[in-house]
Amino acid sequence: MPVPNLSTVEIKAFVPARDFALSKRFYEALGFTLASDGDGVAYFRHGDCSFLLQDSSADERVVHFAMHLLVEDVEAWHAHVRAQRIAERFGVAIGEPEDRPWAMRDFTLIDPGGVSWRIAQNIPRRA
Known about the structure:
Blueprint: E1 14-17, H1 20-30, E2 33-38, E3 41-46, E4 49-55, E5 66-70, H2 74-83, H3 86-90, E6 98-100, E7 104-110, E8 116-122
């Protein structure tokens, strides 16, 4: 039996936003480009990566949501986040870069709605 063409183009996460307007400003300040915005969904991209921010202000089910952003230079991203004064401007938590046992160096960033981000780069596995 022949296999149907199952090629894919991309996959995107719907990231919940309790305060949609504030979250859009937050992601733009981080350096994401707002590519489109309508009907409670904003399409953000950075290079070849993208996600959909969804207005979830009326949705009580949003409890915990996490995203992982793999980058080439985690120190540069951390410096950018600090330079943009993201913590002060948006009242969010930013961790310090740390080497992890799963062969990544990352830091955490919590968005205004509580979405947890791990921004990471691959590093050599420890012996």
